[in-house]
Write a sequence for this structure.
């Protein structure tokens, strides 16, 4: 995908809303953090587009991501030149966020590792052998975003990081189970192979509308996995301070609401993408308000 296709400037809300797996920089976000959060999401979204959008070959996508990584290295350098290269609209604000807030470079690189992995798995047709392999991918594709946000909020204890990883992995899994109607035609299958084998399903079966009913058990297993991960991480909403904690409540409840819609569709989710609507907002808000603090943390 040519870099000129990317917007030259985005508001925090636009930049983050474009990256579906994670929350928007809403009015709940402290104003001082809106710019660095937008920079992180703009970085992630542009990389995701390089890996997934347009008609470029796998070889070209990998080359583009290699160039993108080189610009990330330059942005992370102790003394860096003014933003140039192919993506100045991404790396100028990211460079400032790195300098102002000390964003860990390893977390940004981990996101690029995940995008490269997606391309390589699509190219060679391999999938994920089991849940552990899929969660290992989430460790690079999703968990770094949560850790970057906690870094901005000054939260870095081991327990909070573990809870964050569980929430972010859950959000990634929910995105997978929401999007098979998009992913499967692109050659991406995120259903673990051992789960598919249990229900005697192949990737071809998953793409066949006639076979959708056979995937009911598989989808139920997927929903259970994502919900379990989210439940493990939910104590974090009481640990993150201020308005950010309230935004995290909405993120958690929004993800769980999507998961309920996936569960309701069952095998039909292979052809039909569930979406949140304005009608879901009051329920999400109500549930967010009444999230109970666990007795022990």
């Amino acid at each position: 995908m040519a870099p000129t296709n990317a917007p030259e400037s985005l508001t925090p809300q636009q930049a983050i809303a474009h990256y579906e797996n994670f929350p928007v920089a809403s009015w709940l976000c402290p104003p001082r953090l809106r710019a660095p959060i937008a920079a992180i999401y703009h970085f992630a979204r542009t990389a995701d587009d390089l890996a997934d959008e347009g008609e470029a070959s796998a070889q070209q996508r990998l080359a583009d991501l290699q160039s993108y990584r080189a610009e990330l290295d330059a942005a992370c350098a102790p003394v860096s030149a003014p933003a140039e290269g192919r993506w100045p609209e991404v790396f100028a604000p990211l460079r400032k966020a790195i300098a102002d807030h000390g964003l860990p470079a390893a977390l940004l690189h981990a996101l690029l590792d995940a995008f490269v992995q997606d391309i390589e798995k699509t190219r060679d047709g391999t999938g994920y052998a089991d849940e552990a392999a899929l969660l290992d991918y989430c460790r690079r594709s999703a968990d770094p975003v949560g850790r970057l946000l906690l870094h901005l909020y000054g939260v870095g204890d081991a327990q909070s990081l573990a809870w964050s990883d569980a929430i972010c992995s859950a959000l990634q899994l929910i995105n997978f189970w929401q999007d098979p109607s998009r992913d499967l035609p692109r050659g991406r299958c995120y259903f673990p192979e051992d789960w598919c084998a249990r229900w005697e399903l192949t990737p071809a079966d998953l793409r066949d509308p006639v076979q959708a009913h056979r995937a009911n058990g598989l989808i139920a297993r997927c929903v259970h996995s994502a919900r379990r991960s989210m439940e493990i991480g939910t104590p974090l909403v009481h640990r993150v301070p201020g308005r950010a904690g309230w935004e995290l409540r909405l993120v958690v409840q929004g993800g769980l609401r999507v998961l309920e819609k996936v569960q309701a569709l069952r095998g039909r989710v292979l052809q039909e993408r569930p979406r949140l609507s304005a009608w879901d907002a009051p329920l999400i808000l109500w549930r967010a308000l009444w999230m109970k603090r666990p007795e022990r943390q």
